[in-house]
TrEMBL record:
Keywords: DNA-binding. Residues 11-71 form the HTH tetR-type domain. The keyword DNA-binding applies. InterPro entries: Homeodomain-like_sf (IPR009057), HTH_TetR (IPR001647). The lineage of its organism: Bacteria, Bacillati, Bacillota, Bacilli, Bacillales. Residues 34-53 bind DNA. It comes from Salimicrobium album. This is Transcriptional regulator, TetR family.
């Protein structure tokens, strides 16, 4: 009984700090978040916050996850546009690009920053605390959002394309890795303003390169089975 009370208290405190972190991000941006700002807003000391979060990178990761709900909710509608695995994967990329370039700093924290440990462990812990975020998600979408590694996500997702005859087994990991690096490169360029790109241009450029990468991987005789102009 005492253990249960302690667990409930820890969960309650964890969520207090999470709510404070989300409010701080909405007010100042995730790049200006500090443990002190979050603790002050939550009504506790910084030392208390460190009892529940290893460091600021962990708290930022958890808080950033609260801003991805619109992506996970919209993803099933994008997937429904595709008739085969390649088309569905292109649509999934379109959804991810739309949301990630709308909130670049959030997605940078989730997929590019050093979080001081296992990002998968952090993701698992987040969904153990916010299980309601998974309610109503189709099983294929749930398996995507609960896998942090974007490379593994892609490999798992497009494996079906091999059975459909649209990709060779040996192409899966290469295509998955190349498309991830394309997104990371363009996202870094966009965030650091190394090129003059609007959000829409960044999305369009990423999807164009993803399509080209896929096109080179699909056997020539199978390309006609894919609607490359599918509405993304």
């Amino acid at each position: 009984m005492q253990t249960n009370r302690k667990q409930l208290k820890n969960a309650r405190m964890w969520k207090y700090f999470m709510e404070a972190a989300v409010e701080t991000i909405e007010e100042s941006g995730i790049e200006k978040v500090t443990i002190r700002k979050i603790a002050d807003r939550a009504g506790f000391t910084s030392s208390t916050a460190y009892n529940y979060f290893k460091d600021l990178s962990h708290l930022k990761f958890f808080a950033a996850m609260r801003f991805t709900k619109s992506y996970t909710e919209e993803l099933p509608y994008y997937l429904d546009k595709g008739e085969n695995t390649i088309e569905k994967w292109l649509c999934a990329w379109a959804c991810f690009c739309k949301h990630s370039f709308e909130q670049p700093k959030i997605y940078e924290v989730l997929f590019m920053d050093n979080v001081g440990g296992s990002a998968q462990d952090l993701l698992d812990h987040y969904y153990s605390m916010f299980e309601e975020d998974l309610i109503g998600l189709p099983e294929d979408v749930r398996s995507i959002v609960m896998e942090h590694s974007f490379l593994k996500r892609s490999v798992l997702f497009i494996q079906q394309a091999v059975e459909e005859g649209l990709l060779k087994e040996e192409k899966i990991e290469v295509v998955s890795d190349m498309t991830l690096m394309i997104w990371k490169g363009i996202m870094s360029t966009f965030i650091n303003e190394r090129r003059s790109l609007t959000k829409e241009e960044a999305v369009s450029l990423t999807l164009s390169y993803v399509k080209q990468t896929l096109s080179h991987a699909v056997p020539e005789e199978e390309k006609k089975r894919i609607n490359w102009d599918i509405e993304l």
